[in-house]
Amino acid sequence: MAQSAIITVIERACRRAAPRLRRDFGEVSQLQVSRKGPSDFVSVADRAAERTLVEELSHARPGWGFVLEEGADIAGKEGAPRFIIDPLDGTTNFLHGIPHFSISIAVEHEGVVQAGLVYQPLTDESFWAERGRGAWLNNQRLRVSGRAALGDALVATGIPYRGHGDQAQFESILSAVIPEVAGIRRFGAASLDLAWVAAGRFDGFWEQGLAPWDVAAGILLVREAGGFVTDFRGGDKMVERREIVAGNGELQSRLHRLVAGALRVS
């Protein structure tokens, strides 16, 4: 399927920001041995990518608003859509020279995400979706995994770390999920995790403590690929509650029951 104008605009912006990210990623391994460390360098890379994205998107869609991870939100004209942007999802991977990170951009209008794109600069993979038009990897249609048995499922998650997340809650869920699945992966970039669920690479995904820019594009990708996404209670408040369970219809339901049961929520 040919891309729409808005997907073309978003992808063009990502491709303008990508060369700088690739170049900076190549520098990180040299900085890891410095006394100062690479953290400040990565912050600069993050902000530089965000500036490029905002400049490109503002030029293509003047008057639209922005929800940004790094900078202050930018109000658009009344009634205009807004972009939700994570310029570098997987910052810790980037920091350590691990080649797994992405740019995530969604378009929200009147409270509903209408389009989304997750771009991996190192592999040149562009996962994109629009409401009612399906989910795609470049020009290839995406469908969620067809597996029905949890025992065959490869599930992704995110792990709490210092100062972030509820470790006790995570351990309770993990203890419930581990005996039931074929394997669990923690790759460190939620937008790509969700894109990989849409592509059938992962069979399911759960995580807590995620921000809107982490999941806005990914939720649409999974749903347009035929999958289901809920919060831990089985509802539609993933952003408000900062919790998410995703997968195909059969596995998402079973994974949700494990998560809810571990937390005793309904």
Task: Provide a descriptive summary of the structure in words.
The protein is α+β, with helices and mostly antiparallel strands and 266 residues long. The protein has two domains: 5-141, Fructose-1,6-Bisphosphatase, Chain A, domain 1 (2-Layer Sandwich); 150-263, D-Maltodextrin-Binding Protein, domain 2 (3-Layer(aba) Sandwich), CATH 3.40.190.80. It has eight helices and twelve strands. It has helices at 5-31, 39-60, 91-95, 167-177, 190-198, 212-224, 238-241, 249-263; strands at 65-68, 82-89, 102-109, 112-120, 125-130, 134-137, 140-141, 154-157, 183-185, 204-208, 228-230, 243-247. A seven-stranded mixed beta sheet has the order 1-2-3-4-5-6-7, with helices on both faces. A hairpin with a 4-residue loop joins strand 4 and strand 5. The chain is globular, with a radius of gyration of 18 Å. The chain starts with a helix and ends with a helix. Residues 32-37 have low confidence and may be disordered.
Q: Shape, please? A: globular
Biggest pleated sheet: 7 strands, mixed
Question: What is the H/E order?
Answer: HHEEHEEEEEEHEHEHEHEH
Q: How many strands? A: 12
Average pLDDT figure: 91
> What would CATH call the homologous superfamily of the largest domain?
Fructose-1,6-Bisphosphatase, subunit A, domain 1
Helix content: 25-40%
Count of alpha/pi helices: 8
Q: What class, by secondary structure content? A: alpha+beta
Q: Briefly, what CATH class of the largest domain?
A: Alpha Beta
Distance between the termini: 40 Å
**How many discrete structural domains?**
2
Enumerate the strands of the largest sheet in spatial order, edge to edge or round the barrel: 1-2-3-4-5-6-7
Regions with little confidence, pLDDT below 50 for 5+ residues: 32-37
CATH fold field value of the largest domain: Fructose-1,6-Bisphosphatase, Chain A, domain 1
